[in-house]
Amino acid sequence: MKKILLLKFFLFSSLILSAQCFETLNFGGAHTVGKKPDGTLWGWGAASYGNLLTTNLTEPLPIQLGTETNWNNISNGTNNTFAIKNNGTLWGCGSNQYGSLGVNSSNLNFTLFQQITTANNWVKVAPTFGFTIALKADGTIWAWGQNDNYQLGNSPASPEQLFPLQVGTDTDWVEIATGTNRISFAIKADGTIWGWGKNSSSIIVLGSGTATVAIPTQVGTDTDWLTMSVGSQHILAKKVDSTLWSWGGGAGLGVGGTPPVTNTPQQISTDKWISFSAGTNTSFGIKEDGTLWAWGFNTNGQLGDGTSTDRLAPTQIGTETNWATVEAGKYATTVATKTDGTVWYWGRNYYGEFGNGSSYGTAYYNTPTQTIGICVTQAVGGGPTYINSAISTVTSTNANGVGTAVGDSVRLIGVVHCQNYSSSGYDFVIIDSNNDGITLKSPTSINGYVPTEGDEIEVEGKITQINGLLQIIPDNILINQSNAPLQTPMIITVLDETTESQSIKLENLSLVNGETMWPSNGNIEVSNGTDNFTVNVPAVSALAGTPTPGTNFHLTGLGKQNDASNPYNDGYQIYPCGVTPVSTGPTYTNSTIGAISGVNPDGTGISIGDNVSVTGVVHCQNYSSSGYDLTMIDSNNDGINLFSLVNVNGYIPTEGDEIKVDGEIEQFNGMLRINPASITVLQQGAALQTPTNTGLLDEATESQSIKLENLSLVNGETIWPTNGNIEVTNGTDDFTVNVPSASAIAGTPTPTDFFNLTGIGKQNDSSLPYDSGYEIFPCGVEPLCNIDVSTTLDTGTVTVTDLGLNYQWIDCADSSVITGETGESFTATVAGDYAVIITDGNCVDTSACVFVDVLSLEENELKGISVYPNPISDELNINNEKGVLVSMEMIDAKGSVVVSSKEASNSFTFNTGELNSGVYILIVRSEKSVKTFKVVK
């Protein structure tokens, strides 16, 4: 299929085409993780904490992280890695110091991804050294890890928080960021910026000497903040006009001169910026013209300008004009990408940060160095990285109607529906194959593209929200195909959040005020006799200025919203696509199934002959091969039979179809049913009612989803009949099972043991009063199972309780089968959650997952370690009474290794007399374990 590129296009070089290409890259303290187009994760750099799912100290070349292919986005901490799957669940691995992984465990490290709670609505993560904050789709922020300076936004201050806690009660957060100096920031949907934690350099409470801020506190009064990046002492923040601002302290401010602190946000030049990142006393940014700039401390050439001169104002790096993204690590390395997809690093490469196969180099690279063999497919166009997203993902809102993806740069695919409502730019809707839609809005056209209904287009742009309406502002548009299939308009009776940017239909309407002409760029009110609806008719609408219908009519259009204030729960309206006059015929009264299924004392229906319009969900199957014999049940669990000798509108029933039926109420042999005149599918895959357990078939079970348990065959038949009855019993009462020829079980073998039966309650009573002949049409048969799925855990071994059956042990992390483990017990060699699938004949059940902590057994070899003196002076001693240490290293506050050894021994002595005063992190390793200590001089 040929694609037409409407904004920009380029060709990768042959070198890049043969490289490992990633959709996105994320750089942490000293490691990079990327996601490939196939959904797999790969990483390189520092790995000693398990953050790359390996026990090696470094991984200088890309390695795959596990085998899963359903990852969505990545966020690296200083020594750990977080990733969100396509289903919205959050996972982490690596360092768990202070509980910073949030997995409710005090284990120091994890070398396998661990799920963080069971929530499935995570959208963003902002990890840093020692703590993490994360954003959910409902607009709430959650935090875990170290909280000694209230950086989690919760009281009291504490050394560690092992699992996520909500930060406050607000539900309108849209952006989050953290700094290495125990600081957290967030932006709300109203464009205000808030901070909490350590108030170093008055970074939160501007101009104040307050040491800490315990709860989210607004910074300034501006309401146009878009996104931000937080360093150790300063913050960079971009406004909606793409200008860049800074405040806090240190050389990374970029405002010139030598101010130690700025008490108000200061603008960094008058340019517009497309990418920026705050590091440790450093800052980096890319301007709109694609040039790369840096400022801050430059002792080791970490700014990348080829010198070691500190820069207090932005200094251009090289002369290239095709830079796309830049990201500063937590230590001394920076990565950037160009629009040709190439990846460049500078600074330190000691831990293999560059991903080029080298490591343990002590030299600093003071100019950008390309990593050959790695590329980024989305770093194109000189702009942001666009994340492939489903429309449903970027149109979710919190409880206040605020979009959870506002500000995100995404790539969407959808089909143009109806028309463009703008005469100079764009105001149209695209809807994808899942029937999820979004409005595409732009004041100007993109390279002359003229929208046509049926165009399937690929759009790259940023998510915004105006007056409650979620929109994408396009940067690029590609046409995939023309004349793509359109979604059938959904018949609705309410305009609300679910109808926004959807193709919808309002039926049986009239004009509230009797206008004879549709307005041109104005509103008009219509009514279905129960509710009124606002129709917004833009000047370029096909209806604008044309005569209105003289009679009742149906209206198709696109759902919109125009609500000027938060919460966005009002102002819903429809943009018109077309009008259809209603033909004469029976008038169908909107009703509920419960209202039309009542009976008199003799069993006759009270609504026989009524023409009604009812809605329900198809349950089980259609029992007719030529027309309809099915049951629809509504949300109140009221059901009715739908019967017709022929198909209507070509509709083919599928369980889970929510349908609207216009028809006449009939009764046959006591069975109430509706004879359909029209059938409209409202949605597919709707929720089903759980079958009701019953021991009696009567009027209450008619057209209900029911379940009979502990059954056997009265006459011992071996085959279910084809279009006939069969008797079953629960040992107390007998029941008639009517098996139509179209039934899924017709002509199949009957159970050989006790069984349960689900089905639809029916009635076949040929004479008044209609009080007998109750039966069940079968939906499914299941064996009666009594497997005991309990297990016991003893020193790493899990054992089943129910013996003598068939077993298969599985890894709960991904439900994968553990090859060869089919016995009554299982001994884990790797810490994790495990369960067993137990099979007894046709009965299959699975036990609960049990956590086996193998790592705690291995950590015993480091329990005898001692480090002294502490505080240290001229000498540091390390002894291990329970085993050999294979390596040690001591790291200063800047992340530099000051002392190290890789000789295996049970004791070390080091001269520390020349070390500067301060706090150091000591890392010692045995064959199986890693342990860290804080050492003070």
TrEMBL record:
Q: Does the keyword ATP-binding apply?
A: no
Q: InterPro entries, alphabetically? A: Ran_GTPase-activating, RCC1-like_dom, RCC1/BLIP-II, Reg_chr_condens, Secre_tail
Q: Where is the signal peptide?
A: 1-19
User: Which domain of life does the protein's organism represent?
Assistant: Bacteria
RCC1-like domain: residues covered: 120-371
Q: Keyword annotations for this protein?
A: Guanine-nucleotide releasing factor, Repeat, Signal
Q: Which GO terms describe its molecular function?
A: guanyl-nucleotide exchange factor activity
Xref: Pfam families = Por_Secre_tail, WD40_RLD
Q: Could you state one GO cellular component term attached to this entry?
A: cytoplasm
- Ranges of residues in domain Secretion system C-terminal sorting: 867-935
Q: What is this protein called?
A: T9SS type A sorting domain-containing protein
Question: Where does this protein come from, organism-wise?
Answer: Brumimicrobium glaciale
